[in-house]
# Entry
Amino acid sequence: MIISISPITTKEFELFKNLIYDYAGISLAAEKKVMVASRLAKRLTYFGLTEYGQYFHLAISANYPDEFQMMVNILTTNETYFFREPKHFEFFRDNILKSWRGDKFRVWSAASSTGEEAYTLAMVMAENLGMRKWEVFGSDLSTKVLNSATNGVYLMDRLEQMDPRLLNKYCLKGVRSQAGFFRVDEKLRDRASFSQVNLMKPLPKTIGTFDVIFLRNVLIYFDQATKKHVVERIASALKPGGYFFISHSESLHRVTDCLEMIKPSIFIKR
# Structure
């Protein structure tokens, strides 16, 4: 039997909008109404529901403890790719890694999605720090993307910005049934770890401190007050003299005074 789902109402959209804002700090504009409906439609079909309000109450119900995270995964997942905004990785290589002297270099990809950014950083560190002690930590709100990141398997179409030499050196191309895919090499996966972190909540005490933090393509979803809280919370894990990267399309203007801009989208903690 085919179930007909009623169009999402403004009231129903507001339920999801307020929930995601309270939980993740993400502001869903009115034009995201269609996106929310299309992303959640499969879950309504799965449960045999005809109205989005029914699904909302099911997802927050104690009777379905895993569905809330499922809903969060669906509504917060964003696409990314390797070497996105390549100028950042050039600065990372030329202005940070080449002059670094220390015991262990740590980088945090604070909105890592499916892991492309974290593994890009790992490739750059492997090229420039070699066998010295370094690691990359990736975090996200979605458990689904974190599982993908940990596995390190990607479609070949994520590679348009990658140097073929790095692909051959650090990735294993799939054959036969895995043709069209590649997997990040184990020597990089061993240097990377991924864990769920909600940037709206106090950071886990076990997270430690970092020499560099990337927080790119996430601030665009926050209002000004949320930006301030999130940036200052994350910057608390940055070592003095450490670097903080945001997307070229984002700004920290009037957000915080704990970071000093040295180039547009690149900041340092004094």
Observations:
- Residues 101 and 129 are 10 Å apart (CA to CA).
- DSSP finds ten helices and ten strands in the chain.
- The domain at 86-268 is CATH 3.40.50.150 (Rossmann fold).
- The longest helix spans residues 10-24.
